[in-house]
Design goal:
The complex is a heterodimer of chains A (159) and B (187).
Chain A lengths: L2 H12 L6 H13 L1 H18 L8 H34 L3 H25 L7 H9 L14 H6 L1
Helix pairs in contact in A: 1-3
Chain B lengths: L5 H8 L3 H23 L2 H18 L9 H23 L6 H6 L7 H19 L3 H12 L4 H8 L3 H25 L3
Classes of the chains: A mainly alpha (159), B mainly alpha (187).
C-alpha cells in the first residue's frame, strides 16, 4: 500500500479501530518508516482528543419533570376523554326520558303486532275436517269447480 | 451501548411511569449530548431531549420488542436534533456563544481549568458548527458517543461505507477549518 491508501485508512477505519488485523499490521509497519503518514496520524489523534474533551453533561432535572408532567397530563386527558364518552353513552341508554319511553313503547307495540300478524297468517283459521282444509287452501270446491273467481279482491283477501 | 431490560419496557408500555423514568435515566445522557453536539445549543438540546422521550413514550405501545430499543431512541434523537438545528438555523438566534459556555460550567473546577475547558468547548463548538450536518451527526456519534460504524449505520439507517466516507470527509473538513482559523489568527 502506498501513502495515499494508508492515509485513507488513517482517516477512518484505522483511527476508529475498524480495520482487520492484517491491514492494521500493514498500516503500523508503514507508519514506522513514513514520517508524513506518522504526522497525519498524530494530527488525527490530536483532533480526536480535542473533540472528546468536550465535557459530557447530564440534562437538567427540569427536563424529566417536564416530560413527566406532559405524559401524565396526556394520560389523564385520554382517560377522562374515554370516561366522558362512556358516561354519555350510559346516560343515553339508562336515563328514562319521555321521548325515549314513548319511542320504546311504540317499538314494542309494533313488534308485537307484526309478530302476531305473522303467526296468524301462517296458521289455518278454518277448523274443519281434512277435506275442507284442502278445499280452503286449493280454492277448489267439492265437485272440483274453481272457487277462485270471487269477482272482488276484498273476498280474495279474506279467503 | 447497553440495551434496556425488556421487562422495564413492557411495564413502561403499560403506563408505569416509574419504569419509564428508568428508561429516561438510562438514555437521557446520550440523547442530551447528541442533541447538544448537533444543535450546539443547550436550550435546543433540552427541548430535543423532552421531545424524544415524549415520542418514545407514545411509541412504546407499538414498539416491536424484538428490535433494539436503544437504536430506536438514538434514531429519534438524531432526527429530532437535526430538525431542531435546521429550525434554529433559520431563526438565527439562541446560539450558544462563548459567554453562555462559561456561565453554564459547574463551579467545582479551578478558574484555569474552567478557562481551558471553555476554550476547547468553544473551539470545538465552532468547528462542529461549520461542518455539514450529516457529517456532524456521524462525527458526534463516533467521537463523542463512541458508537461503532455498525451502530451508527443502524441509527442513521445508512450503509457502513457511507459512514466511513462521511467521517473521512468530516475529519478532512475539520483540518481545513482549523488551518484557516490558524492562518486568520496569524499563527
Amino acid at each position: 500500500m502506498g501513502c495515499k491508501d494508508i492515509q485513507e485508512l488513517l482517516q477512518a477505519d484505522y483511527l476508529d479501530g475498524e480495520l482487520g488485523s492484517v491491514e492494521e499490521k500493514a498500516v503500523r509497519e508503514h507508519l514506522l518508516k513514513c514520517p508524513a503518514c506518522r504526522r497525519l496520524e498524530a494530527q488525527l489523534r490530536t483532533q480526536r482528543a480535542f473533540l472528546q474533551s468536550a465535557k459530557k453533561e447530564a440534562p437538567p432535572e427540569r427536563v424529566w419533570q417536564n416530560i413527566r408532567r406532559a405524559i401524565t397530563t396526556e394520560a389523564t386527558s385520554r382517560e377522562s376523554g374515554i370516561r366522558s364518552v362512556l358516561e354519555r353513552l350510559r346516560e343515553l341508554l339508562l336515563t328514562s326520558r319521555p321521548v325515549f319511553a314513548v319511542a320504546t313503547a311504540l317499538t314494542a307495540i309494533i313488534c308485537i303486532v307484526v309478530l302476531a300478524g305473522a303467526i296468524i297468517l301462517n296458521q289455518p283459521f278454518y277448523a274443519g275436517n281434512g277435506e275442507d282444509y284442502l278445499a280452503v287452501y286449493t280454492l277448489n270446491g267439492e265437485n272440483g269447480e274453481s272457487l277462485s273467481n270471487f269477482e272482488t279482491t276484498l273476498e280474495e283477501y279474506f279467503l | 451501548m447497553r440495551d434496556i431490560d425488556p421487562d422495564i419496557l413492557k411495564r413502561a408500555a403499560g403506563g408505569d411511569i416509574e419504569a419509564f423514568e428508568d428508561i429516561y435515566r438510562s438514555f437521557s445522557g446520550f440523547v442530551y449530548n447528541v442533541a447538544l453536539g448537533i444543535t450546539r445549543d443547550r436550550a435546543d438540546a433540552e427541548e430535543v431531549t423532552q421531545d424524544v422521550f415524549i415520542k418514545a413514550y407514545r411509541g412504546l405501545k407499538g414498539f416491536r420488542f424484538g428490535s433494539s430499543f436503544k437504536t430506536w431512541v438514538y434514531r429519534i434523537a438524531v432526527n429530532e436534533a437535526l430538525n431542531r438545528y435546521n429550525r434554529s438555523k433559520k431563526e438565527k438566534s439562541r446560539r450558544l456563544d462563548y459567554d453562555d459556555s462559561i456561565e453554564s460550567q459547574p463551579a467545582h473546577r479551578s478558574g484555569a481549568e474552567d478557562m481551558m475547558q471553555s476554550d476547547s468547548e468553544a473551539i470545538c463548538s465552532m468547528l462542529l458548527e461549520r461542518l455539514d450536518q450529516r457529517q456532524r451527526a456521524c462525527l458526534v456519534l463516533r467521537e463523542i458517543e463512541g458508537l461503532s460504524y455498525k451502530e451508527i449505520a443502524a441509527v442513521l439507517r445508512i450503509p457502513v461505507n457511507t459512514i466511513r466516507s462521511r467521517l473521512k470527509r468530516a475529519r478532512q473538513a475539520l483540518f481545513e477549518k482549523a488551518r484557516k482559523e490558524l492562518t486568520k489568527d496569524g499563527l
